[in-house]
Amino acid sequence: MSDIREEAVSRAGRVLFPANGFVFSDYLALMKPRVMSLVVFTALVGMAAAPGDMSLSTSLISLVLIAIGAGASGALNMWYDADIDIKMQRTATRPIPRGQVQAHEALYLGAVLSVFSVIALGFAANWTAAALLALTIGFYVFIYTMWLKRRTPQNIVIGGAAGAFPPMVGWAAMTGTVDLGGIVLFLIIFLWTPPHFWALSLYRTGDYQRAGIPMLPVVAGKDHTRFQILLYSLLLIPVTLLPLATGMAGMLYAAVAAVLGALFLVGAATVFIRRTGNAAEKAARGLFRYSILYLFALFSVLLLEAIK
C-alpha cells in the first residue's frame, strides 16, 4: 500500500513540478497577465466612475471574475493562434510554441473559465454585466481572433472593441445598465487601440509578414500606417475630454488629459515625420511605450476623481 501511495505522490509531483518548468506559471502565461492587469484596471475605473452602490466584497468578486474572463479569452486566443505564434519573435516564447502546454489544454482552460466567469458574474453582480462579459470574450475570440486577424488590415480597428469593453462591464456591474458614461470610456480605449498597436506593428512588420497576418504596414505600407496613426490620434484627443462634458470628471482630469493628449500628438507627428532608419523605429517604439503610460495615467486620474 505504501508503494502505491508513494507512486501516486510521485506522479502528482511530476504533474505539478515537471522537469521543464512549473506548470502553474505556464497556465498563468496563457491568460496574458499583462492584458489582464489592464482589463482589471479599466474595469475598476468603470466601476468607480459609475453611479450606484455595491459592497466592497461584491466589487472585488466582480473584478476577479472580469479578470478571469479576460484570461479565458487570452487562453482561447493562444489556442487558436498557436500556428502563427511560433513564427513571430514577439510570441514565440509563449507556452504553446515552447511546448510547455498543449494547445488542447489551452482550449479546455479557456472554455471552462469563460463559462464560469460569465455565470458567476451574473450571480455576483447582475446579468447585464455578465452578458457584456460574454460579448467581450466572444468578440475577442470569434470576431477578432478567428475572423478579422488573419483576413483584414482593419483587424485592430474593429477587433479593438474587445479591449474597450471592460470599463463598460465594470460600469454595468455597478448599475445594471449600459449608460453614456460607460460608452465614453469604451470610446476612449476604442480610439486609443489603433495608434497603440500600429506603432508596434511598424517595428514588428517582419513578424507579421512571416506569420501571414495582414497588419496595416504589411498590406498598405508603413507610410499609410503613419498617416492612420496620426489620424486616429487626432480623433482620440477630443474624445478623451468627453468625461468632462458628461460630468464624470472635473478640471484636474481636463488639464491632465490636455497635456497627455498634446504629448500623444507630438509622438504621433514624430512617427509621421521620421520615416527612415533608426529614427523611424525609435519614434514608433517611443509612441508605443508612451501610449501605455498615456492610457494608464488618463484612467488613473479618472479613478482619482471618482473616489475623492
How would you summarize what this structure contains?
The protein has 308 residues and is mainly alpha-helical. Helices cover 79% and strands 0% of the residues. The protein folds into two domains: 24-176, Tetracycline Repressor, domain 2, CATH 1.10.357.140; 179-308.
Keywords:
single chain; mainly alpha; Tetracycline Repressor, domain 2; 2 domains; 17 helices; disordered N terminus
Describe it.
With 308 residues, the chain is mainly α. It has two domains: 24-176, Tetracycline Repressor, domain 2, CATH 1.10.357.140; 179-308. It is built from 17 helices and no strands. It has helices at 2-16, 23-30, 33-49, 56-80, 82-85, 103-124, 127-148, 155-159, 161-164, 166-175, 180-203, 205-211, 216-219, 222-239, 242-245, 251-273, 277-307. Residues 1-22 have low confidence and may be disordered.
Topology:
Elements (H helix, E strand, L loop, with lengths): L1 H15 L6 H8 L2 H17 L6 H25 L1 H4 L17 H22 L2 H22 L6 H5 L1 H4 L1 H10 L4 H24 L1 H7 L4 H4 L2 H18 L2 H4 L5 H23 L3 H31 L1
Helix pairs in contact: 2-4, 3-4, 3-10, 3-17, 4-6, 4-7, 4-10, 6-7, 7-10, 10-11, 11-14, 11-17, 14-16, 16-17
What percent strand?
Answer: under 5%
Taken in chain order, the helices and strands follow as HHHHHHHHHHHHHHHHH
| Overall tally of structural domains | 2
Radius of gyration: 21 Å
The low-confidence parts are: 1-22
- From the spread of the alpha carbons, the general shape counts as flat
Based on the coordinates given, report the CATH architecture of the largest domain: Orthogonal Bundle
Determine the structural class based on helices, strands and strand pairing: mainly alpha
Instruction: Sketch the major β-sheet.
Output: none
In the CATH hierarchy, what is the class of the largest domain?
Mainly Alpha
What's the N-to-C terminus distance?
A: 63 Å
